[in-house]
């Protein structure tokens, strides 16, 4: 066989795995059906701005090994994510913190805020069974109605009562004036963009773009000892048990001849009527400066629209509800019979992974493979 590993997908999972294998002297081929590396973390430089082509990506982690690992390849800046919520022209600080509670209710002290939430969460009896109940029990009905319900239903295309509680538990609730969106020890954006990080990791490794594994499956199966597959698991099995559901995202991009459109990297539109979920102003991920530390004169914005995935679209988010969870389990069983194929990443494992979790999982998978 020509290669030890064929890695399908030049996203973060495939790239980290390839790097580890390459450093152990293994011969690797990385293929991707897209015309670029990086998968969903891909950034492209437009007018000096590193544009996050598949949506805003902020690296955040509590895992020091993962942080040290990615910092081997590039330097990260000190970006801290603090999105603003726009509800019909009213602006609120995110995640839910004392600034949010003050604006919502006029409360000034943490005790007052806690009291307000305690009153409102009384309507939920027992353990929350869906996202709506979970949200009300975390922050009360007022915040649920203004900052959660519309946004969530736009993003997931489903009623909040039909979504699992854990999705909203991703967001911190704080009784301090701290609007850092993540509870993470380490956070930042690679200086020069994510594509630079991926390029560095793939240095020395053979990559073929515009190459779809599933179209030439038989040929590819015969060129490597082991295949690392990071595409959708249901597509691998030709949807034989039915299609898993995904959410897709569409972006409307504009280059504007002004310096500052919204004063923040992300503004979430949390009402139901605005058709997009958020607007990203990419320059603020790197503080509005170009690589020479000069102010960038123009700005580039992306309006993000969420939609149900259909064949031909990019699958972005797995839909982690019961129905899809059960179908995934069936595909997982099938995948265990594919002796020389390892399924990994957000699509291969049908899991709502963040980047740091993907890096951790790829490192762990590589360790297991390369030791055995
Ligand atoms: P992907 O990046 O999807 O890579 C899979 C690759 O496989 C793709 O390049 C695809 O083209 C290729 N492929 C698929 N099928 C085939 C085939 N048949 N043949 C060849 N190639 C194939 N995480 C964070 O930590 N912080 C954030 O702020 C954040 N924001 C996000 C915002 C959005 C809008 C989205 C969608 C995700 C966000 N994430 C964020 C999650 C992050 O994008 C993922 O954790 C990570 O990119 C997953 O990497 P991956 O390699 O598993 O998958
Ligand atoms: N969310 C919300 N209002 C917001 C931002 C997020 O209700 O302004 C909810 C929404 O349900 C979302 C979840 O919180 O799916 C998790 O948000 P996060 O930003 O972590 O989602 P991501 O885009 O990273 O998947």
What does the secondary structure layout of this molecule look like, with pairings?
Elements: E1 3-8, H1 12-23, E2 28-31, E3 43-46, E4 49-52, E5 59-61, H2 64-71, E6 84-87, E7 90-93, H3 98-105, H4 110-121, H5 131-139, H6 141-156, H7 166-169, E8 186-188, H8 194-201, E9 206-208, H9 217-221, E10 224-229, H10 233-236, E11 246-256, E12 266-269, E13 278-281, E14 299-308, E15 317-318, H11 322-336, E16 341-343, H12 345-348, H13 355-371
Parallel strand pairs: 1-2, 1-10, 2-9, 6-12, 10-16
Antiparallel strand pairs: 3-4, 5-8, 6-7, 11-14, 11-15, 12-13, 13-14
Which sheet architecture does the biggest sheet show?
A: 7 strands, mixed
Q: Going across the major beta sheet, what is the strand order? A: 7-6-12-13-14-11-15
Helix content: 25-40%
Which value, in Å, is the CA radius of gyration? 22 Å
Shape: globular
Series of secondary-structure elements, N-terminal to C-terminal: EHEEEEHEEHHHHHEHEHEHEEEEEHEHH
**How many individual helices?**
13
Low-confidence spans: none
Which ligands are bound? flavin-adenine dinucleotide, uridine-5'-diphosphate
Write down the overall mean pLDDT: 96
Structural features:
single chain; binds flavin-adenine dinucleotide; 372 residues; binds uridine-5'-diphosphate; seven-stranded mixed β-sheet; 13 helices; alpha/beta; 33% helix; 16 strands
Please give a structural write-up.
- It is a single chain.
- By secondary structure, the protein is α/β, with parallel strands linked by helices.
- The chain has 13 helices and 16 strands.
- The chain has helices spanning 12-23, 64-71, 98-105, 110-121, 131-139, 141-156, 166-169, 194-201, 217-221, 233-236, 322-336, 345-348, 355-371; strands at 3-8, 28-31, 43-46, 49-52, 59-61, 84-87, 90-93, 186-188, 206-208, 224-229, 246-256, 266-269, 278-281, 299-308, 317-318, 341-343.
- A seven-stranded mixed β-sheet has the order 7-6-12-13-14-11-15. The chain has a five-stranded parallel β-sheet with strand order 9-2-1-10-16, with helices on one face. A two-stranded antiparallel sheet has the order 3-4.
- A hairpin with a 2-residue loop joins strand 6 and strand 7 (90-93).
- Helix 1 packs parallel to helix 13, helix 4 runs antiparallel to helix 5 and helix 5 runs antiparallel to helix 6.
- The longest helix has 17 residues, at 355-371.
- The protein is globular and about 70 Å long.
- The two termini are 18 Å apart.
- The protein binds flavin-adenine dinucleotide and uridine-5'-diphosphate.
- Uridine-5'-diphosphate (UDP) binds next to helix 6 and helix 7.
- Uridine-5'-diphosphate binds at residues 85, 94, 147-148, 151-152, 155, 167-168, 170-171, 268, 270.
């Amino acid at each position: 066989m020509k290669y030890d590993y064929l890695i399908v997908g030049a996203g973060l999972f495939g790239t980290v795995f390839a790097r580890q294998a390459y450093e152990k002297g293994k011969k690797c081929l990385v293929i991707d059906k897209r015309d670029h590396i990086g998968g969903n973390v891909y950034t492209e430089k437009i007018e000096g701005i590193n544009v996050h082509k598949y949506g805003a990506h902020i690296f955040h982690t509590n895992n020091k090994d993962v942080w040290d690992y990615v910092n081997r390849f590039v330097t990260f800046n000190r970006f801290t994510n603090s999105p603003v919520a726009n509800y019909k022209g009213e602006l609120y600080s995110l995640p839910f913190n004392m600034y949010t509670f003050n604006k919502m209710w006029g409360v000034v002290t943490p005790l007052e805020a806690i009291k307000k939430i305690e009153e409102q969460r009384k309507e939920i009896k027992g353990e929350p069974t869906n996202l709506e109940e979970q949200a009300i029990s975390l922050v009360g009905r007022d915040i649920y109605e203004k900052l959660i319900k519309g946004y969530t239903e736009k993003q997931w295309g489903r009623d909040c009562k039909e979504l699992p509680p854990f999705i909203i538990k991703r967001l911190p609730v704080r009784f301090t004036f701290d609007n850092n969106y993540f509870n993470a020890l380490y956070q930042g954006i690679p200086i020069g963009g994510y594509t630079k990080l991926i390029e560095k990791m793939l240095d020395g490794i053979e990559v073929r773009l515009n190459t779809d594994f599933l179209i030439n499956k038989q040929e590819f199966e015969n060129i490597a000892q082991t295949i690392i597959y990071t595409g959708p698991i249901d597509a691998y099995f030709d949807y034989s048990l039915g299609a898993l559901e995904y959410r897709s995202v569409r972006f409307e991009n504009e280059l504007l001849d002004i310096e500052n459109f919204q004063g923040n990297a992300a503004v979430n539109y949390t009402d139901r009527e605005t058709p997009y979920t958020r607007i990203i102003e990419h320059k603020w991920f790197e503080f509005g400066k170009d690589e020479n530390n000069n102010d960038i004169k123009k700005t580039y914005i992306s309006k993000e629209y969420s939609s149900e995935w259909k064949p031909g679209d990019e699958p972005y988010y797995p839909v982690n509800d019961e129905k899809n969870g059960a179908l995934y389990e069936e595909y997982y069983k099938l995948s265990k019979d594919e002796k020389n194929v390892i399924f990994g990443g957000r699509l291969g494992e049908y899991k709502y992974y963040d980047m740091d979790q993907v890096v951790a999982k790829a490192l762990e998978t590589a360790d297991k493979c390369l030791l055995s």
